[in-house]
Amino acid sequence: MKKLINTLILLLIIFNIYSQNEAVIKPSEYNGALRNPLKGFTTRGLNNHPWATTAHDYIRWNQIENHETDGIEKIINFCNREWEDLASKNIKVIPRVYLHWSGEDQKYWPEDMQEDDYTSEQFKSRVVRLIERLGIVWDNDPRVAFVEMGIFGKWGEQHSPFPTAEMEKLVGDAFATAFKNKKVSVRRNWERFTEHPFGEYWDSWAHYDQMWEHGGGINKLNEETGRYKETYIGGEVAYNWGNSDIQPGPSPTQSVAIKKHRDFVINSIRWLHCTQLRWIDDYDRNNPDAAAGAEEIQKAFGYRYVLDEVRFSLDDSLRVSFDVTNTGSAPFYYDWPVEVALLDSTTLEPVWTTRMDSVDIRDWMPGEGWTDPEWKYVGSWQEYHPNENWNPSITTGWTTPPAVNRVEDKFKLDLPDGNYILSLSILDPAGDLPGVKFATTNYLKGGRHPMGIVKIGENECLPLPVSFQFDDPKNDNSLYYDDNFEIVYERAPEQEPFNGSAWRFPTDTVAAWQYDFMNDFQDEFFFSLDSANTIGIYGCNDTTGLNIRSYNDSVQYNDAAQFKWNQTAETFQKNGQWLEYTADFKLNLPYQLLLRARNNADANFRLTVLTTRDDTAYHRDFSLENDFNNRGGGNEQTDWFLSKIPLTGLWGEYIVRFDWYDNVGEPGIFGGFTFVRSYLDVDPPEWYYVSIGTLSRGTDIVVMTTEDSKVYLVPEGTPADSISIKNSALAVTGVNAYNQHKLPTSGIDQGNYVVYAIDDANNVSEPSPLITITAPVNAQRLPLNSDISLSHNLSTEEVTITSSHRFKQIDVFNIVGKKLKSINGTGNNLIFSTSGLNSGIYLVQVFEKRGMLTTKKIYKR
pLDDT tens digits for 518-530? Predict the structure, then answer.
C-alpha cells in the first residue's frame, strides 16, 4: 500500500511539472474568407481572381494529339506552355479534354479520326491511349488540381451524345487505371460510369430546373456512398437557359450580391459538400455588394480549418498537440503534411522544421446532413422544385455538427539554447512550402501560424507577447509552390542504325537509312539532297532485289517506305506510306519547298515538319499542279517545282516527313528536294477597324485594314481558308490600307457573321469579332398562335407564358426591333423577369419546337 501511495505521489509531481511547463493557446478565429488551394471560386480559363486558386482549362483533343504519330511530348509541351506561370500564382488547373463545343463547325477531332465517331475500334484504341498518356503527364503534375473526364458530347459534358454502356466501362476503367493520385470527376456519377467512385461535376449548379434531379442525385450519392468524403464535388453555375433567373439568379453578380440568391447558392454548397464552382466567379468585382457576397460564398466552399486550441510543452522532447474543426463544407482530398517549425525570434525565419507524421488532414471532416431544400411538387419532368420564396439562412444547419479533431506528436530537438517561436502550417508537397492557411488570426506572411514561445535551455513554453504583430492572411498572396517535377515514361524505341557501308555526309546526326542530314549554305539553299543522288548512295537504292524492309531498323516502322530508284526518271517507285529526313534550318527565315518531280504527273502528297521531340511544327497537303510552279531544270521526264506557299517559323533542327499517298506502287513521281529562302508575302492583313455587335439589316459594315486586300462577309463558322471564304462570301469589297470601306448587308438573312480580309498573296486575316444582323420585328406581320397565353404581372415584373406545346426559344425586342433578351425554352411553361428593362412597349416573340411562332406585346410602366 505504501509503495502504491509513493507511486501516485510521483505521478502527481510529474503531472504538475508538465502542467506548469505546458502552454495552452486558444487562437482567435479569422472571420473572413481565405484564398486557400484546391477550393473556392474557379476561373473559366487561366485568369487571375482575388479568391481563385483553381482554374478550369478546356483542352481540344487535337491541340494535344492531331495524328496517331504525335508523341506524348506534344501533350507535355502544350501543358508546359499553357501552365507556365501557375505555380508562382499558387493556382492549380482542372483540365477537361473535349471533342465538340456546340456548333457543327466546332469539332476538334484529330485529323486521322472520324468526326462524331464515339464507338469504333479506332476510337476505342485511341481514347484509351490518350487517357494513358494524360495519366503519365498529369497524375504527378503539381499544377493539376483535379481532372474532369470530359471527352464525350458537347463541351465534354457527356451528353449529345451520351456514352454507351460499353464506352463507360472502357473509358472509366482507363481513367481509374491512369489516375492513381489525382481525383477524377464525371457528370451524373449516380447513373453513369458507376463502376468507379469518381467525383462529380454538375454543369448547372443550383439551377432551379435541375435541383431535384441533379442536386438530388448528388445528395443521394453522398448519403448512400459517402462520396464527398473520398473525392470532390464541384462544377459550373449556368445562366443561359431555363429558369436560371429564379435561382441561382440572372447573372454571376446577382448570384453573389443579392441575398436570396447568395443564400440559395451557399445552401447548395453546404447541402452537397461542394468544393469549387466556376462561371459564378465572373461577378462584377467593382460592385461592393458582390465583393462582400463573394467572400461569404468563398467561406462556405470546401474545407475551413479552425484551430480551437494549441498545447505545447518542452522537457526531453517538444510535445505539440492541437484541436482543429473543419467548419467548411467538404474535406481536403490530398495527403498534405502538417509542419511544426521553430522560427528565429528576430527574423521569423524557420531554423528547425519537422512533420507530424501521424496526421492525415483528409480525416478532418465537415458536418453531415445539411438541411434539404424546401421542395414543392410541380408534376413536370423535374417532379419537384425548391420553393423560390424559401429563406435557407433561417431554417438550415448540420444534423451532425463537425467533429473536433485532436492532433498530437513529440519531437527531439537539436538547437542552441535560446528563445524560438513555435509555428504550425500545412505544406504543399510540391516544394514542401506552406500552402493551406488555418482560419486563425495567428498568421505570418508566407503561410505559417505562430503560436507561442519555446525557451530551449530553460525548458519553458509561453504564449506570444501581447505586442506580437500578426499579418492579415487575406492580404497575403505570396504563397506559391514548386512545379519542378519529372515525368517518367517509356519513350519510343531509338532507331537502330543501318550497319552497312553507306557513305555519310559530314555532320550527319543519324546513320539510319530513313534520315539524311546535310548542311549546305551556298547561295540561298539551306538544306538539300543533291538532286536525289543521295538516295542512291545512302542505302535506299534497292538494286539487289531486296527491299528496305530487309534492313535491321525496318521492323520498328511498319509503315516505312519501300521503293526502287529509277535512274532514268531520277525518281523512285514506292509501296509504303512515308519517308523521313532530318533538316537543320539555320536561319529564321520563311522558306519555299523546291521539289524534283516528274513533269507529266498531277500528284498529291503530305508534308509534315516535326520537332526532334515529335511535335508537329508544320503540316499541309500539297497538290503538285495547284500549289507549285514548274521551274524547269530537269530532264525530259522531270523538272524542279517551287511551292507557291511559304513555310514560316522553322528555325533549328527538324524532321521532314513526306507522305506520297497517291498511286502507291506505280512508277515513281518524286525525287530530290531542297528548301530555299522565300520572298513571298507571308504577313496577313490585320484589322484596323470593324463595325461589330448587332446591326439591323441594311446597315453598312465599316471596315479598315492595314494593307490592300479584299474583305469578305461570311457566316460564322466558315472555315478560315481562302477557298472556303471566297465560296461562302455574301458580300465582298476591295479595300485600300487604312481607308474606310463599306460592306452592304441589304438582303442578308438574320444571323451571326464575321469578315475576313485576304491580300494579293492569299494571306488570310484573323476573323473579325462577331457581327449579328437582325431585322426589325413587326408584330402585325407575324402569325399568331392562339394556343399561347401570355400574362404580365406589373407588380412582380414577371411575364408568364404557357402553351399546349413545348417552347424552343423566347426573344424580347424593344419597339424598334433591337433584341434585348433571349431565353432557351424548356417545357411549355416559362416565367421570366422584366426587371432591368426601361418603361415602354416590348414585343415578346415565342418559338415552339413544332415550328410555330407568335409575338405578343407587353407594356412596362
Answer: 233 333 433 333 3
Q: How many C-beta atoms lie closer than 10 Å to residue 483's C-beta?
A: 18
Radius of gyration over alpha carbons of the chain, in Å? Answer: 34
Residues 6+ away with beta carbon under 8 Å from 20: none
The stretch 652-667 carries a mean pLDDT of 65
pLDDT at residue 66, as a whole number: 92
Q: Are 514 and 557 a contacting pair, CB within 8 Å?
A: yes
Residue 574 confidence (pLDDT) above 50: no
**Three-state DSSP class for residue 170:** helix
C-alpha cell read off for 576? 509504303
Closest residue by Cα to residue 342 from 330, 333, 332, 354: 354
Are the C-beta atoms of residues 274 and 267 closer than 8 Å to each other? no
| Separation of alpha carbons 484 and 431, rounded Å | 8
> Quick check: 362 pLDDT over 60?
yes
* Residues 631, 595: Cα–Cα separation, whole Å: 10
Beta bridge partners of 421: 343, 453
User: Does the bond joining 161 to the residue before it have cis omega, within 30 degrees of 0?
Assistant: yes
Q: Give CA torsion, residues 635, 636, 638, 643, to 10 deg.
A: 90
Whether the Cβ atoms of residue 222 and residue 232 lie closer than 8 Å to each other: no
> What are 549's three cell numbers?
524492309
pLDDT band at 544 (very low <50, low <70, confident <90, very high): very low
Coil, strand or helix at 232: coil
Q: In degrees rounded to 5, what are phi and psi of residue 630?
A: -75, 120
Q: Kindly state the cell numbers that stand for 122.
A: 479506332
Distance CA 752, CA 809 (A): 17
Distances (CA, A) of 460 to 15, 20, 311: 15, 9, 13
Give the Cα separation of 277 and 542 in Å (integer).
Answer: 63
Cα torsion 650, 652, 655, 656 to 10°: value is: 40
Provide the b/e sequence for 296-324 (b: ≥16 CB within 10 Å): bbbbbbbbbbbbeebbbbbeeebbbbbbb
Instruction: Using pLDDT thresholds of 50, 70 and 90, give the confidence band for residue 307.
Output: very high
Contact 338, 422 (CB under 8 A): no
d(CA 65, CA 129): 11
Query: If phi over 0 gives left and psi between -120 and 50 gives alpha, with beta otherwise, what is residue 319?
Result: beta
Q: Which of 146, 397, 378 is nearest to 278 (CA)?
A: 146
Q: How far apart are CA 141 and CA 144, in angstroms?
A: 6
**Cα–Cα distance, 593 to 599 (Å, whole number):** 16
| Termini Cα distance of the chain | 95
pTM of the model: 0.61
Does the pLDDT value for residue 556 go beyond 60? no
The pLDDT, as a whole number, for residue 662 is 60
